[in-house]
Amino acid sequence: MVDAFEWIKLSVGLLTPLVVLVLGLVINRKLEYSKARMSKEREWESYWASAFLRVANDFNGCATRIVTSMALLARYVNEDDDIDGANRIIAGLNEVTSMLSALEWELQQYSDFAQVNGPAVRARGKRLFHAVQTLIQQRSGDLEEIRRMQFEFTDAVRLAHSEILSIVPDRSLRRFDPIPSNGREQTGS
């Protein structure tokens, strides 16, 4: 009986490290798989967040180019009476306006990745787009209001970008919070 007990003790003593080794390998394998999956997800988030930010920045830049071109066009027509210069500005405006339209379309697609803040980006982008279109059509407008719309658009983009990356935005960078906490109400503000 003593020999059987010693035999069991010896078997358990030898099997315990083997069981621990096998369990460690299984756990390690699962951890490595999870790490690889998370890494691929982070890579995906990073790629699309970067693409979204590029489109939003280009959209905002086109709006700025249109506003400044309209001011330059007014000077060429009203002060300098430079028809050739005005025609060059108009040709550039046509190109930038079509670019703005294409970027607005892309922005709607990319902002879908931010389910909470994406609707605010789309609403503010659309509002800015229409304000710039109105500026072009009426050849006048409130430039300060357009600048404010650009700021609100940029702020919404920052929140959506953070959401796509699954990070919390730095609230210390914000002067005010124009987007409600749930991100869906008052998207036109």
Which keywords apply here?
Four Helix Bundle (Hemerythrin (Met), subunit A), mainly alpha, 189 residues
Overall geometry comes to rod-shaped
Query: What class would the helix/strand composition place it in?
Result: mainly alpha
Mean pLDDT: 84
Question: Any idea of the CATH class?
Answer: Mainly Alpha
Report the portion of residues in β strands: under 5%
Helix content: over 70%
Largest sheet: none
SS element count, helices: 4
CATH architecture: Up-down Bundle
Number of domains: 1
The span between the termini is 85 Å
Uncertain regions spanning at least 5 consecutive residues: 176-189
Written as H for each helix and E for each strand, in order along the chain, the element string is HHHH
Radius of gyration, whole Å: 29 Å
The number of strands is 0
CATH fold node name: Four Helix Bundle (Hemerythrin (Met), subunit A)
Description of the molecule:
The chain has 189 residues and is mainly α. The protein has one domain (46-189): Four Helix Bundle (Hemerythrin (Met), subunit A), CATH 1.20.120. Helix content is 80%, strand content 0%. It contains four helices and no strands. It has helices at residues 2-80, 83-111, 118-138, 143-164. It is rod-shaped, with a radius of gyration of 29 Å.
